[in-house]
Every structure is written in structure tokens, then in C-alpha cells.
Structure prediction request, 405 residues.
Amino acid sequence: YGYWTGHQDYYDHTAVEWNAWGYDMRRNNSVDWSAYGKYTTTILTDEARDVITKHDISSPLFLYIAHLAVHSANPYSPLQAPEETVKMFSNIEDLQRRRYAAMVHELDVSVGKIVKALGDKNMLKNTVIVFSSDNGGPAAGFNQNAASNWPLKGVKNTPWEGGVRAAGVVWSPLIPEDRRGRVMSNLMDISDWLPTLFEAAGGDVASLKGLDGVSHWSTILYDKPSARHHVLHNIDDKMGYAAIRKKNWKLVKGTTYDGSWDGWYGPSGRMNDSCIHSFNSIDGAGPIEKKKLLKSDAGRYISRLGISVIDNLNQLLKDAEIKCGERPVDAHACLPLDAPCLFDIDQDPCEYNNLAEKLPDIANDLLDLLNWYNATAVAPLNTQPDPMSNPKYWNYTFTNWADFE
Prediction:
């Protein structure tokens, strides 16, 4: 169940793609007109709860919920949430940030309802929950959005840490008690989720052939060394950029949008910003916030398993924070359109100081690794949209039009 394009209006479920406009909500291959007027986050949540409720618990369940939130909707109304939710954040002065906060809240409510559904079905005690972003946020108006990657550099669709670093969480009663509530900072690529979850479900990863990904399940459970040592962020010859990470070193060659989104964008969400909400302070969660956590759907159902949702919370928040400080006055500038840039991400996560000239051997090593990857590349299959795919020819719906010609 869901939509076929890259985004949609959260209420009327139309999408603007390639200068075309049409309705886009499907149940399997059939257009679901009944979704019109209902909030996308709520619809997908209800669908997930229905799957859980109807599931035969004698069999395993893999449930993938690809929320639209908090992606931008169509350009003419990009940030959308129920008005009553927007009013909950009246303390946020900036209207776009206020709407964005409301969208995040609706997503948070969704997580709670899904956890509750698992608890009601007596499935939570043997479940692994993964919640993850797929890329950095579109900040400062990029994609008409109001996210923040502070203090990291860049936005979505750029090679900088603010574009390629994604936050995530893995929760499960199967994780040993002394390993819960920890921040993991080892490298992980999106291709690693398949073998990681396969092993978590009891599968033998060695039986999976031809994978690029590696399992992190033993790292999560027992803090064993990760098998992931480098990550290819991207090679895009059309846009003219590439980026790769090897251990703590990162190389950036070229950039996107001629460097127009290569800055550092806020707001920070800290006490000096007008958008501050009490729980956003890195100083920790106070008694009121902890009480809210305990009363939330997720908090109540997790607590029923004898697992605390507030133990070590303040330390966890501090451990998760990225601190960069002010850019050093002697930092070497990165001009990626002129020459590749090298960064020590462990020491310089905000990519202030370009070390390519100082450490040419390391830069060349990463360039060689990048060239090795590029030698395996195949030609992209992207094609221009066929004019007959325009929804206006198909009752203003995005559809598998070639099947009907």
C-alpha cells in the first residue's frame, strides 16, 4: 500500500513530477480513491496497524513502513500537518519550522501507535524495530523544507555529512541489557540492513551470496568489531561529483549545484534559537519530559516488558550530540570544484579543515579506491519521461500506462 512517485500532497495525494500532475495512492495495483482527504502519515500508520492486528503470530513478520513524513509535499504547499498539531508548537516563531515540527510530531505519534499494536498482539517481546532516515535533511529552504542538519555541513543531495549521514535507532528486547541505550558510531551503509536483519531473524548470513552489505548484528549485541571499513557515498558523473569514506577518512571530489548548498545550516535547536522547545536542550530531559515519555504509547508498552525508557537518557542524549565548535582560523578551505578534499571525520565531523594538501598519500589512497569502484560501474538506465506517461491522459492518475496502450 502507498504511492509510486517520490512524494505527494499529504491530503489529496496528488504528485507533481516532471511537470506533470496526478493522483497517486495505490492498494497493490489498484488506485485507492478512498484515501483522498486523509493525512498520509495517519493512513500509513493505520495500514501498518491493520497488518499487525491480522497477523498470525505463529509465523514471522517483516513489516516495512516507508513514511512520506517528513518529506516535502508539492511545491505549492510543501509542509503539511493537521492544524491542531501545528498549534501545539506555537512557541516556534518561524512558521515553516513550526509546520515541520508538527510533521515530526505526527510521525512520532505513528511510531507510538505501531509499538502499541505490537504490544497488544503480544509480539513486542520478540521484535526488532529499526527507525532510520535515508539521508540528511533538506535544510534552509532546500526542497521548500525546513529541516536542520546543524552543526553538519550541507543538505540532502550533497556529498557532505549533512547530506549523507543518517540518524537511526535499533530497539529490541533481544539486545542484552548492558548493550541497551548506547550510541554506535561505526560505519554502516544502507546495504548492510539486509544481512543485519537476516541474521537478527536467525538466518545464516554466509548463505547470502553476492551481497555488498555486511551484518552488524553481532556488533549491536556484543560490541564486536564491525566488518564495514569503507562506504562509497556516491559516484555521479552526470552531476560531476563523488565521495567516499574509509575508516575515519573521507574524500569529496566535486559537488552538487555548483556548491550553492555547501554551507552550514541551522537552526541549531539549542537555547540560543527562537525555535527552542524544552526537550531539545542537550542539557537533558527534565522531569516533565521524562513523564511524557513514560505516558506515551511506546513508553508504556516498552515498560511492560520491564525495560526502562528513561534510564541513562540524559547521557544518551549527550553521547549522540555532535560538537564541532567554531571553524578554526587556520583551517584549509575546501574548493571541491577545483581539487578533491580530504577530511578526518572522527576529529572534524563538520568538515572544516581540508587535509588533502597536508596528507596527499591518504588522499591518493582514497582516490584509488574511488577509481576501483568506478571501474565496476555500469551505464545508468535513466531515460527521459515518455510524453504518454503524463497522468492527464490516464484520468489524472500516475499509472503503469504502457500496459494500456
Observations:
- Residues 95-120 form the longest helix (26 residues).
- Confidence is low (pLDDT under 50) at residues 272-282.
